[in-house]
Amino acid sequence: MGCCPKGDTLVSPVVKYVLLVGTLIHWICGAGMLALGIWAYVEKNKVFYHAVQNVYDVIFDLSIVLMTFGAVMFVITMCGFVGALRENTILLKIFYWSLAVIFVVEVVGGSLVLIFKDRAVGHLSGVLKEVYVRDYQDDQEGIMDYFQEKFACCGVDGYKDWNKNAYFNCSGRNPSRIKCAVPYSCCKKPDEMMPGLHNILCGASVLSQNASSVKVYTVGCVPTVVAWLHSNMLIIGAIAIAIAVPQLLGICLGKLLVNQIEDQRSRYFMHRNVRGRARSRVEGDIELPNKFRLYTDAAKAHVNKAFQNVRDWRGNYDRRWRE
C-alpha cells in the first residue's frame, strides 16, 4: 500500500503463493478433464449417438461426468487463482465458499450412503441393470466389460441379469443369434481356444444352463465390488483423505488470505485518514498568517484612503478661502 513502507504488509506471501500454486495446478487439471470429456463425447457420438433421456444417462456417461467435473473445477480454481493473484476478495470468497459447499455435500452424501447402505445398494443395482445391462450392445459395452473382467463377475446381481438385455434374453420372441448368451467378459477363460484372442461366443447358451455347469462367473458385480470395498477400507479412507485435504486447505487458505487483505485495506484507510487530518492541520496553520496579512493590508489601504480624502478636502478648502 502507498501509505506504508516498502515490504510492510499484512498479506503473507507464503499463504498467497501456496494458494496460487495449488489453484494453478488444479486449474490445469480441470482444463484437461474438460478437454478430455469433450473429446470423448464427440468421438463416442461419431460412432453411436444416444440422446439423453433421463438423469441416469448423464450420471453414467463418463464423458459428460468428465466435462461436468472439469468445468466446475476449472471455474472454481480460476476464481481462486485470479483472486489470489490480484488480491480480489470477491473472487476469493466465491472460491472458498464453493469449496465449502462441495465439501458439505460430499460429507452429507457419504454419511447417508453409510447409514442407508442396503437401500443405496439396492437402488444402485436397479439403476445399473437399466443402464449397463439393458443398453449393453448399444452404448455401454466398454464399462461393463471392464468391471466384469476386472472383478471376475457377471451381470449386476448375477449372470441371470442378462435376460433383461434385448439381444441376450432367452424369450421365444428374441430372434438374435446370441440368444441365451452372456458377454465374453463373463467367461472364466475367454481365450481358451487361442491364447490372447477372446472368443466372443464363449458365453453362448449360458442362460439356459444350470449355474453349476456354466463356464462363466455367476456372481454379480455389485456384490463383488461391495465386498472389495469392505476389504480395502484403508485404500478408500486414503482416497477420501486425498480428496478432502486439498479442499480443506483451499478453504482455510482462501479465508485466511481474505482476512489479511481486508486487514491491510483497513490499515491503509486508517493511515490515509490520519495523514489527511495532519495535512489539513498543517495547511490551517500556514493559512492563518496569510489571512492575517491580507486583513492588515486591507486595513492599511482603507486608512491611507481616508487620509487621502482628508488631504483632498483640506486642499479644496484652502483654495476656496483664498478666493
TrEMBL record:
Keywords from the named record: Membrane, Transmembrane, Transmembrane helix
Subcellular localization, as worded in the UniProt entry: Membrane
Cellular component aspect of the GO annotation: plasma membrane
Pfam families assigned: Tetraspanin (PF00335)
Topology relative to the membrane: Multi-pass membrane protein
SUPFAM superfamilies on file: Tetraspanin
Cytoplasm keyword on record: no
Transmembrane annotation, as ranges: 17-42, 62-82, 94-116, 233-258
PANTHER family for the chain: TETRASPANIN, TETRASPANIN 26A, ISOFORM B-RELATED
Protein name as catalogued: Tetraspanin
Protein source organism: Dreissena polymorpha
